[in-house]
């Protein structure tokens, strides 16, 4: 069903009071509080938001290798559903059981043409329960209620900025944001900045401090430098399980660049080029999946110091590193040649485990 048909169906649905599930629902929209209704919407009238904050890294990585996904096409829709389900499989099983037993307890938000702003995961699970009922062992009567999605329908004038703002507030601004893959918050900050929101705006949407948003944007810049360094540009799944190293590295580099008090025991007058060398070495160790004490000992700041604190030790370490760079995987080109029919973003994600 295309956007125009979905929009027509939703307009017809709104006209019938029998489709109203709840009334008097407050919604912050375009700077004011509106009182909205929640409608019982057939799932067939809706389409997933492929850049949903829960799976943004998966979709962007896939599209980098395979072209744009279209959630209106069955094969692409099924792939988006797979990304959503596998994002938190244990949590999804629990939620699916709740939906089956208690029905949808938390309403979603959709655009006037049926794009899901908030509730992609719940809609996916409802679709799974209804359309895969035979496979899951349920009767039609048990899952009949699952063919509907309860949601507010936004006005016609909803623009991308409005949609992104609402998605962020209702997903990453609430307690369940901890349920998201760590990389997603960084990508969401970047997207909101692209749309013209300030760090202060984004902090309000995400219930964070502006300083935290600024730090996340700096960390993402470092992550993207890393991806570009090794030919992983745009393949964000390659960052799985590396957040801690990048958070540490951003702090280390910031301290060395500012020559802060926590590096007062450094025994040499290092230059910007030395900091650049340090960053490159740390990138190599992140790529080789080093973490914890082994990684921190290279560059950490503070009273105990690290290898970089001592000129002779650092120079010897750097030379040894250059001669034998730690590697634990095939190059991107080797992967492409060895697995020509496989999705590179998936291969890189597997290799990072």
Explain what this protein looks like in three dimensions.
The chain is an alpha+beta fold. The protein has two domains: about 5-175, no CATH class; about 225-350, no CATH class. The protein is built from 17 helices and five strands. Helix 4 (about 90-100) crosses helix 5 and helix 8 (about 160-170) packs antiparallel against helix 9. The protein is elongated.
Topology:
Layout: H1 3-14, E1 20-29, E2 32-42, H2 56-66, H3 74-87, H4 89-102, E3 108-110, E4 116-118, H5 120-131, H6 133-136, H7 140-143, E5 148-153, H8 160-172, H9 182-194, H10 199-206, H11 210-229, H12 243-258, H13 272-287, H14 292-299, H15 311-323, H16 332-338, H17 344-351
Parallel strand pairs: 3-5
Antiparallel strand pairs: 1-2, 2-5, 3-4
Strand count, sense and closure of the main sheet? Answer: 5 strands, mixed
Order of helices and strands: HEEHHHEEHHHEHHHHHHHHHH
Q: What spatial order of strands do you see in the largest sheet?
A: 1-2-5-3-4
**What is the overall number of helices?**
17
Rg to the nearest angstrom? 24 Å
User: Shape, please?
Assistant: elongated
The amount of helix comes to 40-55%
Span of the ends, CA to CA: 38 Å
Number of separate structural domains: 2
Which spans have pLDDT < 50 for at least 5 consecutive residues? none
- Average pLDDT confidence is 89
Strand content: 5-15%
**How many beta-strand segments?**
5
